[in-house]
Amino acid sequence: MQRCSWPRSELDILYHDREWGVPEHRDRALFELLTLEGAQAGLSWSTILNKRDAYREAFVNFDPAHVARFSAARVERLLSNPGIVRNRLKIESTVTNARAFLRIAGEEGSFDRYVWSFVGGRPVVNHRSGHGDIPAKTAESDALSKDLKKRGFRFVGSTICYAFMQATGMVNDHVVDCFRYSELSDELAGREANAGVMRSGPTGMGRTKSRS
Question: Which pLDDT score is estimated for 210?
Answer without folding.
Answer: 30
